[in-house]
Design a protein that fits this description.
- The structure holds two protein chains of two kinds.
- Chain A has two helices and three strands.
- Chain A is an alpha+beta fold.
- Chain A has a single domain, classed as Mth169, Chain: A.
- Chain A has a three-stranded antiparallel sheet with strand order 2-1-3, covered by helices on one side.
- By secondary structure, chain B is α/β, with parallel strands linked by helices.
- Chain B has a single domain (3-230), classed as Rossmann fold (3-Layer(aba) Sandwich), CATH 3.40.50.
- Helix content of chain B is 22%, strand content 25%.
- Chain B is built from five helices and eleven strands, in the order βαββαβαββββαβββα.
- Chain B has helices spanning 15-25, 68-78, 88-95, 152-160, 218-230; strands at 3-8, 29-34, 45-48, 83-86, 102-104, 112-120, 136-143, 147-149, 164-169, 188-192, 198-201.
- Classes of the chains: A alpha+beta, B alpha/beta.
- The A-B interface holds A 9, 12-17, 20, 65-66, 68, 70-71 and B 58-59, 62, 66, 94-95, 101-102, 104-109, 147, 149-151, 183.
């Protein structure tokens, strides 16, 4: 079982790295790129659990460790 | 004589400087505490030094908060014990929930290593007792993630509870966007816990505790911590 965890900065939080990347893309001529937000992506492999259990564990891990709730939110997908 | 513990995490790199200032500059007892120890008995104060605990993997301080010593530090703080977090130590205390807020990447996206001026906002905390509110201290910063963040409503609450301890200012103590080098919300350089016994700051007092290093202002913070203990 594999869980994918996407961690992103909350909308209200300024993202200096995303802004720098966006500025670079603009200077390269990508006029249509309106914004860039940088985040983190985790692939978590789980053994001997159902899809529901895998999702519950991945969400717990994301809440406790992978994301900082002050500045980040997360989303979990299981396959 | 105060007995001060200096915690060493894998990747701490200001541990010896901090130990040196406590022991040789301030003349107190200093003791290294390995992060796998959870015995803080006999200590009057604990310092979490700067560095790059666990290589700053995931987020600054995010892995260190699970070290065995952090359970003991939380207990120590709960009982009112003075705890000072410097730079990465501050970030670890935030991750552990002992201090408010979180650090974003500096607004310039650059690692900043330079002297800064910070204004003392409160002298009723474990690390600022005896200092004068409004006085300006000069000491270095060295960090990539020191851009203090909290949502606006929570910042209002933090201010109203008097938990903002230091702000980045110009040398005269005036707020100036250029002096707020990392872009911190409301120029916050240091905060304290509601109980005022846990204090964190991004600048390095231990790197400015002797005149030979360009400033001895940092010694005032270390001595304030010791004064708190000795008078307790």
């Amino acid at each position: 079982m594999k869980a994918r965890v996407y961690v992103t900065l909350k909308k209200s939080v300024f993202d200096p790295q995303g802004k720098t990347i966006h500025d670079a893309l603009k200077s390269m001529g990508y006029a249509s790129v309106a914004d860039v937000r940088q985040g983190k992506f985790f692939e978590v492999a789980l053994d001997g659990v159902s899809a529901e259990q895998a999702k519950a564990t991945a969400e717990e891990v994301a809440r406790k460790v992978l994301a900082n709730p002050v500045i980040e939110s997360f989303r979990v997908e299981v396959e | 004589m105060a007995s001060v513990g200096v915690v060493i995490f894998p990747g701490s790199n200001c541990d010896h400087d901090t130990y040196h200032v406590v022991k040789h500059v301030c003349g107190q007892q200093a003791k290294f505490i390995w992060h796998k120890d959870s015995d803080l008995s006999g200590l009057d104060a604990v310092i979490l030094p700067g560095g790059f605990s666990y290589g700053d993997y995931l987020r600054t301080g995010a892995i260190a908060k699970f070290s065995p010593v952090m359970g003991a530090v939380a207990e120590f703080a709960k009982k009112g014990g003075p705890v000072l977090g410097i730079c990465n130590g501050f970030q670890i205390l935030q991750e552990a929930g002992l201090l408010p807020g979180a650090m974003l990447r500096n607004r310039s996206v650059k690692f900043l290593s330079q002297p800064v001026n910070i204004r003392v906002e409160r002298n009723d905390t474990a690390a600022t007792a005896g200092l004068r509110v409004g006085e300006v201290l000069t000491m270095p910063i060295a960090h990539g993630e020191g851009n203090f963040y909290m949502p606006d409503a929570e910042l209002d609450e933090l201010e109203s509870k008097g938990q903002v301890v230091f702000r980045y200012t110009d040398i005269g103590g005036g707020l100036d966007d250029a002096a707020n080098v990392n872009g911190s919300a409301r120029a916050i350089a240091g905060v304290c816990s509601p109980g005022r016994n846990v204090v964190g700051l991004m600048p390095h007092p231990e790197r400015a505790s002797e005149p030979e290093l360009g400033s001895a202002d940092g010694r005032r913070i270390m001595e304030a911590l010791i004064r708190t203990v000795v008078h307790a």
